[in-house]
Amino acid sequence: MATINVDVKNVLGTVTAEQIQAINPEAADGLRKVYDGSGLGNDFLGWVSLPSEITDAHLADLEATAKSLNENCDYVVAVGIGGSYLGAKAVIEALSDQFAALRPEGDFRRTRVLFAGQNIGEDYLSELQDFLTDKRFGIIVISKSGTTTEPAIAFRLLKEQLEAQVGKAEAAKRIVAITDARKGALRQLATEEGYKTFVIPDNVGGRFSVLTPVGLLPIAVAGFNIRELVKGACLMENATKDADVESNPSLLYAETRNALYRAGKKVEILVNYNPKLHFFGEWWKQLYGESEGKDGKGIFPASVDFSTDLHSMGQWIQEGERTIFETVLSVENVERKVVIPSDAANLDGLNYLAGKRVDQVNKMAELGTRIAHVDGGVPVIRITVPALREQYLGELIYFFEKACGISGYILGVNPFNQPGVEAYKRNMFALLEKPGYEEETKAIKARI
Ligand code: PA5
Asked: What pLDDT is recorded for position 106?
């Protein structure tokens, strides 16, 4: 049975239970479209039954590839951007010791996964190149289209460096390409160079691809259990099949956020109280931002890390324009135990907390904030997860994906395309005088 829970009682001061229920037929219709493919973007529904279709042989292949990279590399650079980056980054950060990177090199327990190609920062790339000098490293290059500029630049640089450090033949053994089955420059390069490859299915878009090799291989290389992750996603796939809002948490979340949107709440803030979830917020923002922000519509997805951001964004959230709602990701159990000590002098006045665990304080910060925000006119959806473990993250990922598909259909958009992403690329290519963009170059130069 899936374990995560969605609680919407703290939105009821803003919308009524009847207003939420009124969306139920549209949500059920969205769910039906996700399954029967009668909605917009139906050629990108491969993620729907992806978890239950993952075979043991596929997982074994991913694990064997991760093992080979682990044996040959102290560092593996995952090169990708957007959907080819954020899922792996989110899961690895949620499961990792946050200070692993600062531990002495002799203290390696697992290969460290670094990321590149998610920006065009010259300093970032140069510093990464410096760091990798004389290190035992490998590369997982991930691009569905195989033509995205950011990862293509990073991969060209890192491939050249790796070949210079270990020779072309050894480099080819330490490079894995994850891309389209047939098309794109990366597929061609991988075939020519003899890289191990994995396929991103045609019918799975970037932001829905974390449970394909795009996410699974880097996560396995980082030492985490991809079988448990997939198990969690399977449990949630089963739990979100029926159009029964009592038992289907994705349906409940999708219809509640749409009821809030219709009541004028245009911004959804994903809140965490665990710094390990920072990048989960980044993944979620891409999932919902690219899926829903189109045709002049869509809830703007934002994210904050509490209690850190209570000291920066807290004022705005408490008393700013009342167009926001929060979705709080609450982790019930932490992995470690830290008890606040008593202090004889008690100069900081903290002895009232002596003997309490840090997480108890965090939980009271969460409860106090929830009450304050509800009182301040910010409705709160609360999603609880038992702990930051692979299975629960798998559940959460699939839960949000399913809700996103349903929610996009409720909104009346195609949740599976991203036409707006091309606009900046066309201008950038024109400005960089890419062959084939001569007309655009002329036109854009006339404007600057
Ligand atoms: O969700 C998406 O489709 C995008 O964010 C892509 O994942 C991103 O642009 C990277 O594309 P590609 O994997 O083709 O390099």
From this structure: 58
